[in-house]
């Protein structure tokens, strides 16, 4: 008979559908379902169901079958099938943590048969051990009961098969006998696995790092021993005493996808000792003390009490913009430009009439001037006009001013597309000698408004980092925006990019392509640049390389093609925080003008940051094609750590002072390998802000 504990368990499980009538029936069910795991229950023809009640019955029946098939796959030690089910079904759909009629969970069976691969797969999916095994004695008693009852059932069926004459009932009993013999062997194997198991060894390694001024991060690795049962959870303990008496706190980690834990709510400046122990079905193993043995929650800013650079900046800028708008509300610049000379007034009036005239439309060809084009794309499709042309509007047909200044000004306007109308009202045409610049910028705002009106879209996206020029005197400024949802527009439509590129016929010779031809030829590269510009770094501390080069009208910065909104970089570690102690070490190294660490030194081998920097510098020098011996003259920027939010921070590696910025005409002795760009500094700053 079942123990009283299992009687109570069976009553608690009465609401769950009964299992297969025999182990053999479960096997048949498992085989029947093996080819159907990719079919969700919602794929049934719901039109054939009478009502919601029948749909729910079908859903529950299907989920129960999946649950039974998972148990059978674990019992048969079919790792591939277990992984397939865990991939295509959620833990809730598989009923992963509800015991079966024997009081067992899939994870119980896996760990007691010592099937480590299946046990780890189940743990990754969130599987738990049965809560009914409150002690070693209760687990041992339950396994003994299962073995005894299975043996009793085998003996009963064997007696019936021997004593009864051959008939249909006898044949069915023989099948049941074979199934129960198999289950008897399974329970015996589980019982033997439990009896021979021992508590786990200590975690093989425990690493402690400072996560912030009030938290520590603990990272640990599973025990090296393969002779004990599978570890199912870990315990992290912390104390101010190296003897761990008294304990200040502990946490049990049973989600084993990532073996790390952050202890929060600690006191800054206080030393905390950490240890971690592992657990399996035999109990808790010995603890492993962290390395280093203690850590003090802190942040590099505590070194000199420095406030975050960007604290309150966004709010201050919003307040300033509000003040400017208030001042300009009743400004004369909102009135028609009545005080302008007649020629200027006529020019602006002509532009305004062109903007609001019913016949205002996109251009088909370029006729020597400055133009704006907007690229909207979704997957492999692009927005074009009804004439299958990329949307283009004219900015100025007599453009003669310095382009880079106006172009960089337009990139800043791209940060506030919704304010273009207000900006247009505020940019008045001056009568001074500098009016050419204001005229051009006013025309830029007019062109932006025209593009927004024709497309019916305010946000034109991100300005590409350089305009396209051709030998015919055309200059094309390109904006790029990815459309995430299925939208329809009145004056444009979606077409495949490949179709547009194929159908485009150049009106000039191949040797002298127009700016539009160049745009179509390089369109894929520009879309790739735009997508990469929006990628974010994973959390961590990075080492960045700052290299500039100057020209007559701009300074450019070296960036990787794969992530053009970030400096050339390598990852130092996953923890973005620099502790006060680490920052003090960096300050000391900078104060004595020591070279950056490229070679190991025995007296610093215990400094984790020193070792991490050595590895990172070697990797970074290889990346940018600079001989490692040259790095001895490089410096770490010691004024601050560059924080990008709470999860990403940078240390900067600088060349010698004379080489930080390459002057015009100066040869750079070390040319980076392919895969790098030089962006205008203002464009890079805008990309980093995005």
Layout: helices, strands, pairs:
Blueprint: H1 4-12, H2 23-33, H3 52-75, H4 79-88, H5 91-94, H6 106-112, H7 116-124, H8 136-163, H9 168-196, E1 205-212, E2 215-221, E3 233-239, E4 249-253, E5 260-263, E6 272-280, E7 283-284, E8 288-295, H10 313-328, H11 342-356, E9 370-378, E10 381-385, E11 392-396, H12 403-413, H13 420-426, H14 435-455, E12 462-463, E13 468-469, E14 475-482, E15 492-496, H15 497-503, H16 515-521, H17 523-533, E16 540-545, E17 548-550, E18 555-560, E19 568-573, H18 580-591, H19 608-623, E20 635-636, E21 642-644, E22 648-654, E23 661-662, E24 676-680, H20 681-689
Parallel strand pairs: 9-14, 16-22, 17-23
Antiparallel strand pairs: 1-2, 2-5, 3-4, 3-6, 6-7, 6-8, 9-10, 9-11, 10-15, 12-14, 13-14, 16-19, 17-18, 18-24, 20-22, 21-22
Helix pairs in contact: 2-3, 3-4, 3-6, 4-7, 6-7, 8-9, 11-14, 13-14
């Amino acid at each position: 008979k079942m123990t009283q504990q299992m009687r109570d368990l069976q009553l608690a499980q009465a609401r769950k559908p009964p299992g297969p009538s025999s182990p053999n029936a479960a096997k048949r069910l498992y085989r029947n379902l093996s080819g159907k795991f990719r079919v969700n229950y919602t794929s049934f023809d719901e039109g054939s169901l009478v009502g919601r009640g029948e749909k729910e019955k079908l859903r529950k029946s299907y989920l129960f079958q999946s649950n039974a098939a998972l148990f059978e796959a674990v019992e048969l030690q079919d790792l591939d099938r277990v992984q397939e089910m865990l991939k295509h079904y959620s833990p809730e759909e598989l009923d992963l943590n509800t015991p079966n009629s024997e009081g067992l969970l899939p994870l119980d069976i896996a760990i007691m048969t010592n099937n480590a691969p299946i046990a780890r797969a189940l743990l990754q999916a969130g599987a738990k051990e049965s809560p009914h095994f409150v002690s070693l004695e209760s687990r041992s008693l339950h396994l003994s009961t299962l073995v005894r009852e299975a043996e009793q059932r085998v003996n009963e069926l064997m007696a019936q098969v021997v004593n009864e004459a051959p008939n249909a009932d006898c044949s069915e009993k023989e099948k049941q006998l074979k199934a129960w013999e198999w289950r008897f062997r399974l329970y015996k194997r589980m019982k033997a696995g439990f009896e021979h198991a021992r508590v786990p060894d200590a975690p093989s390694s425990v690493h402690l790092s400072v996560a912030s001024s009030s938290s520590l991060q603990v990272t640990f690795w599973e025990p090296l021993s393969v002779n004990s049962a599978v570890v199912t959870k870990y315990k992290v303990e912390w104390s101010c005493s190296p003897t761990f008496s008294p304990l200040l706190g502990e946490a049990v980690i049973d989600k084993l996808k990532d073996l790390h834990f952050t202890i929060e709510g600690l006191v800054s400046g206080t030393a905390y000792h950490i240890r971690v122990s592992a657990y399996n079905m035999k109990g808790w193993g010995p603890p492993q003390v962290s390395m280093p043995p203690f850590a003090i929650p802190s942040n590099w800013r505590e070194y000199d009490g420095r406030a975050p650079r960007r604290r309150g900046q966004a709010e201050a800028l919003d307040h300033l913009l509000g003040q400017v708008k208030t001042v300009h509300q009743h400004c004369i610049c909102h009135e028609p430009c009545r005080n302008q000379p007649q020629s200027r007034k006529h020019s602006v009036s002509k532009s305004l009439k062109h903007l609001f005239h019913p016949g205002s439309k996109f251009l088909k060809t370029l006729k020597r001037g400055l133009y704006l084009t907007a690229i909207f794309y979704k997957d492999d499709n692009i927005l074009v006009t009804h004439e299958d042309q990329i949307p283009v509007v004219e900015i100025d047909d007599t453009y003669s001013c310095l382009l880079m200044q106006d172009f960089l000004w337009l990139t800043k306007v791209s940060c506030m597309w919704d304010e273009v109308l207000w900006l247009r009202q505020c940019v008045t045409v001056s009568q001074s000698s500098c009016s050419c610049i204001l005229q051009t910028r006013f025309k830029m705002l007019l062109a932006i408004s025209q593009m927004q009106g024709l497309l019916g879209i305010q946000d034109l996206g991100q300005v590409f980092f350089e305009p396209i020029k051709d030998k015919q005197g055309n200059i094309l400024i390109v904006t790029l925006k990815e459309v995430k949802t299925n939208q329809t527009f009145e004056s444009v439509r979606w077409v495949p990019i490949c179709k547009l590129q194929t159908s485009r016929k150049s009106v000039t010779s191949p040797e002298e392509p127009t700016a539009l031809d160049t745009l179509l030829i390089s369109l894929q590269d520009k879309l790739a640049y735009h997508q990469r510009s929006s990628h974010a770094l994973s959390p961590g501390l990075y080492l960045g390389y700052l290299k500039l080069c100057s020209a007559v009208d701009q300074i450019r910065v070296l960036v990787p093609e794969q992530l053009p909104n970030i400096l050339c970089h390598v990852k130092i570690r996953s923890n973005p925080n620099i502790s006060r102690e680490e920052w003090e070490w960096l300050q000391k190294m900078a104060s004595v003008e020591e070279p950056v660490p490229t070679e190991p030194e025995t007296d610093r081998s215990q400094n984790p940051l020193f070792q991490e920097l050595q590895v990172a510098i070697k990797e970074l020098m290889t990346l940018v094609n600079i001989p490692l011996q040259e790095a001895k003259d490089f410096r770490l920027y010691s004024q601050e750590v560059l924080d990008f939010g709470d999860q990403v921070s940078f240390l900067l590696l600088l060349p010698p002072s004379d080489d930080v910025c390459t002057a015009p005409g100066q040869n750079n002795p070390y040319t980076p390998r392919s895969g790098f760009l030089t962006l205008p500094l203002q464009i890079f700053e805008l990309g980093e802000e995005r």
